[in-house]
Amino acid sequence: MKIVTAKQMLELERRSADIGLPPEVLMENAGLAVAKGVGEFLGNIIGRSILVLVGPGNNGGDGLVAARHLHDWGAKVHLYLIKRKTQSDKNFALDMERGIAWTDAAGDLDLSIFDEVLSSADMVIDALFGTGKIRPLEGTVKQMLERVSAAKESRPGLNILAIDLPSGLDADTGAADPACLFADLTITLGYPKVGLFKFPGAARLGWLEIADIGIPSGLDEGINTELITSESIRTLLPPRPLDANKGSFGRLLVVAGSINYIGAAYLACEGAMRVGTGLVTLATPKSLQPVLAGKLVETTYIPLPESEPGVINKEAAPLLREQLAGYDAMLLGCGLGQHPATVQFLRELLFDGSPVIPLVVDADGLNILSQIPQWWQMLPGKAVLTPHPGEMSRLVGNPVAEIQKDRLEAALKAAIEWKQTVVLKGAHTVVASSDGQVRISGAANPGLASAGTGDVLSGVIAGLMAQGLSPFDAASCGVYLHAMAGDLVRAEIGDTGMVAGDLLPRLPLAIKRINSSWT
Fold it and tell me: pLDDT tens, 383-403?
């Protein structure tokens, strides 16, 4: 499922018209899809009072079509028109043939009619403005939306649905006007817009649905940003043949852990095993191995020499280089710490002639790289780098606020410059490849904002790489499975108090759910 800018959406609509699907057909499809979405959201709509805010453009036209269908299905619909020219408006005429109630805002200067209709509404449909140029909301529109927000606050049972996106939300940047509504449901049309996955606007969508409005497949070729979905992940998951052995599912070397961060090693290894990796070996400071062995009973070990208890010595680098040829991928960095001896170890391991195997670098591995000028020019082979915004800030030298302002651009620019796959973690995680492809996670789960969840994610990605997935595909699958596991936990216990270990037993369940949805 591609994700588009406002300009790209206009181009897709133009291409549709060129092959015989004019805007009128797309609008009819859009309005019907919205009406069906209302029915599914509300359940029985017979007799339900629905206020439709109708703007001057195509978004308003979508609202008029939806109103017609909702009326025909038994809803009590009231249209409230804002600067809409009704002459020669076919969809408005069809609504009038049905006797649908309507008010023109120009004749309701004190908004008394608006207030009266709003007071009894079960749902407000925002069909004011779509993906066009965003201006500050002011005047009557601002007053109306503020009154809807106030009504929602005093009457939580009032439902708000936005067509395509809440009015006042920028389809490209995610910027949101202060009067922009917080919807319960947003039905975006044709394709999701990139601004729907950027904050602060992303917080105003409620539940997001993507409505098929009939744009033919194939017209979106050349658009390089896509939404990660179950359908796309299902095609990427490693096969599980019946005659397999542990060697069939890859061998992963995890280099992790230090005296202050023992748990990171555990979480990373378990994350890899829970997505089906055949063999996981943990290389960790030798004094930590007995502690971890009592918890990680399925993992094999390479105890590493120490400069002091729980700190890897640089002498561990040649020891590991001799072992690398026996593994299909390596994860480096979880809980390693940044002791000077550890920094020297990482430099020698990565940049002093190590065999080239697929690599995932996370956490302190990234922090150490950020101290090395032009590190990406020396990094051997293909890697997945998994920074959170703070680590990304250190790697690129830009403030966190600047990175968060346009996460997609930050991840893509870094991936191209570093010639590696970049996973910029956070709400709506961005996965960017060195050839300009971008995949975005639709998930935003505050329960995942806790210590150790990133270690689980890096283990999942590395485990999938060990099973043969490309860095970009492994990163995409890992991000999706990690998010789905988080959603499963949230559905069971909520997002307050969720801890990283809760994700581990849900990872196999997430894979099972994706595969079983095929049948």
Answer: 999 999 999 999 999 999 999
Q: How many CB atoms lie within 10 A of CB 104?
A: 15
Q: Which CATH number fits domain 6-223: 3.40.225.10, 3.30.565.10, 3.40.50.10260, 2.40.50.140?
A: 3.40.50.10260
The closest alpha carbon to 334, from 297, 299, 308, 361, belongs to 361
pTM value?
0.95
Residue-wise pLDDT for 64-91, tens only, equals 999 999 999 999 999 999 999 999 999 9
Dist CA 92 CA 100 (whole Å) = 10
Distances (CA, A) of 417 to 330, 395, 407, 432: 22, 12, 15, 11
Omega of the bond leading into 200 within 30 degrees of 0 (cis): yes
Q: What span, in angstroms and rounded, lies between the C-alpha atoms of 303 and 284?
A: 6
Contacts for 289-292 with beta carbons within 8 Å, 24 or more apart?
291/262, 292/257, 292/262, 292/265, 292/266
Q: What's residue 262's pLDDT?
A: 97
Kindly list the domain boundaries of the chain, sorted by start residue.
6-223, 231-237+247-516
Q: Which helix (H) or strand (E) holds 359?
A: strand 359-361
Residues of the chain with pLDDT under 50: 518-519
C-alpha to C-alpha distance for 484 and 470, rounded to whole angstroms? 21
User: Shortest CA distance to 193 belongs to which of 434, 394, 1?
Assistant: 1
CA-based nearest residue to 5, from 185, 163, 190, 131:
131
Architecture in CATH for domain 231-237+247-516: 3-Layer(aba) Sandwich (3.40)
